[in-house]
Amino acid sequence: MTFSATAAGKRAARGTALLVPVKIDEMHSLSATPARLSNELLAFLESDEVDAEPPQRPVPGLINQIEADGRKVAEASYPFTVYRHACEMADQWCAVQIPCYVSEAREALALGQGDRVPQLRRDLNLPLRYFDMELRRPMFVFDRGSVTTQAYDVQGRSAFVHRLVSADEVHALVVERF
Question: 3-state SS string over the chain?
């Protein structure tokens, strides 16, 4: 799914989302597992709306590129708890809240290490140009995790690689580029 938003006649944002269908396993809790669309649902789609190829996953490759081409300038971990206001149905975290967690982590990094790395504080005033996110595993209400953030200088521009983790599990990967 591709979308765009305009403001004052100019494109303000463009996005692409890849959604994975799920099968509801249990109605009370709305627990679900990834599943293919049934033939009955596929019959409602036109042939050009069905892609048999596996989806592209750009975020891991983007992280590899940033780590190879950039110079790590700072790193920190920022704890968070998934409270109810950040959840959707079934008390699962809501994807629209994830940018809040990573921006808090980036800003805490800038405030904590900005004296040593002035570029971090400068970035607080720059517009975010690219935001790439891959969700891997859900988190649920009252789960505790942390955002581990690595800041990179990539040819004079900043890139932040965020991993939202709990214990040894990676729940989401986010890359912000300014």
Answer: CEEEEEECCEEEEEEECCCCCEEEEECCCCEEEECCCCHHHHCCCCHHHCCCCCCCCHHHHHHHHHHHHCEEEEEEEEEEECCHHHECHHHEECHHHHHHHHHHHHHHHHHHHCCCCHHHHHHCCCCCCEEEEEECCCCECCCEEEEEEEEEEECCEEEEEEEEEECCEEEEEEEEEC
Range name among 29-33, 124-128, 135-139 with the lowest pLDDT average: 29-33
Domain spans of the chain? 2-177
Burial class for 97, CB neighbours closer than 10 Å (0-12, 13-18, 19+)? middle
Question: 0.90 cut: is pTM over it?
Answer: no
Distance CA 28, CA 31 (A): 8
pLDDT tens digits along 2-46: 778 888 888 887 777 777 777 788 777 777 777 888 889 889 999
CATH fold, domain 2-177, is Thiol Ester Dehydrase; Chain A (3.10.129)
